[in-house]
Amino acid sequence: MHRFAVIGSSHLFGLIQQFVGPVDSGAYQFVWDTGAPAVAELPLGAEGWRGDFVLYNTPAGGPPPVLQDGVLYIPPQLIAILGAIPAEAEVVFSLMRGQEFAISQLVDDPAHADFIGADGGFEPGRRWLSRADAVAWARDVAQPLLTTHLALHRQFPAARIVHLPAPPPIEDEAHIRAHAEGFGALFAQHGVKPFAMRKRFYDLMYAELNRQLGEHGIASLPPPPGSLTPAGGLRADHARGCLHGNQRYAEGLAQQIREVLAHVASL
Fold first, then answer.
1. In degrees, to the nearest 5, what angle opens at C-alpha 149 toward C-alphas 145 and 153?
2. Sheet with 38-41, edge to edge strand ranges
3. Residue with more model confidence, 110 or 128
4. What average pLDDT is seen over the chain?
5. C-alpha to C-alpha distances, 248 to 70, 154, 197, 255, nearest whole angstrom
6. Does residue 15 contact residue 42 with C-beta atoms inside 8 Å?
7. How far apart are alpha carbons 45 and 259 in whole angstroms?
8. Can you give the pTM of this predicted structure?
9. Predicted pLDDT of residue 120
10. Closest by alpha carbon to 218, among 167, 133, 151, 126?
11. What gap in Å lies between CA 85 and CA 129, rounded to an integer?
12. pLDDT, tens digit, for every residue of 239-261?
């Protein structure tokens, strides 16, 4: 029997809810109370594979690793969290972190500029930001994502590491406002950033991050296509809150995981 693992924090809720049991049952409250991760079977129905999930609270992993002059500095807290992943895992799917862009891209602070994206779009009335500055901004925002996955690769050098990115922005602004989570006061003050701007930054950030991950042999999957609107945003009926995917989104993730595992098993 082959082994795989899926590690993440809040982005893991949909998979747990769909394939294990209710996340609001209180069974996982200790993860947030104590900082200790929860590890249990994740039965996705992948033939020939035993799967486990590792649910952790992102702050319990300490500050993001730092990459400086080619040297990766990993905080001991994160090493301890990664140590919860079963050592036999041949493939590790990561939903770690993923909300680095949330505040700057959800809240429409008028100080934020727009840039011309690959779609040629630009929001009228915004300050212009050069492509070079936009790329530098995206790299800076995504740096914790990059270094966290490099740490995962460092700790499990024999495993295949597959990054599952955070869902794309929700296109439906009414849904975002109705499920504002902790952003309600900021939305009331500044509004919600237009979807086209949020999607441009998401695309740029993940294009840069995926390229960097690929240089280290880390695969990065696209969001499940069945969860997307024609414009590439997250469908409201596949969303949980204003940032995450729900059980329907998790079904798409599970299918992607099965496809990766089937490919690995055939090699």
1. 170
2. 38-41, 49-55, 2-8, 91-95, 160-163, 219-220
3. 128
4. 93
5. 40, 32, 25, 11
6. yes
7. 11
8. 0.95
9. 87
10. 151
11. 41
12. 999 999 999 999 999 999 999 99
Helices (H), the chain: 13-19, 29-34, 76-82, 102-106, 131-155, 173-178, 184-190, 195-215, 247-266
| Residues 15-24 pLDDT 10s | 999 999 999 8
Comparing CA positions, the residue from 254, 179, 240, 248 lying closest to residue 24 is 240
Q: What is the C-alpha separation between 39 and 44, in angstroms, rounded? A: 15
Q: Is residue 200 a contact partner of residue 207, using CB atoms and an 8 Å limit?
A: no
| Structure tokens belonging to residue 140 | 């800076």
Pick the closest to residue 79 from 55, 60, 99 (CA basis). Answer: 60
Q: Residue 154: which pLDDT band, with cuts at 50, 70 and 90?
A: very high
Kindly tell me if the per-residue pLDDT of 266 is higher than 70.
no
Distances from the Cα of 4 to the Cα of 54, 201, 249, 252, 261, angstroms: 11, 32, 20, 18, 8
Alpha carbon of 110 to those of 54, 169, 175, 223: distances in Å? 39, 19, 22, 29
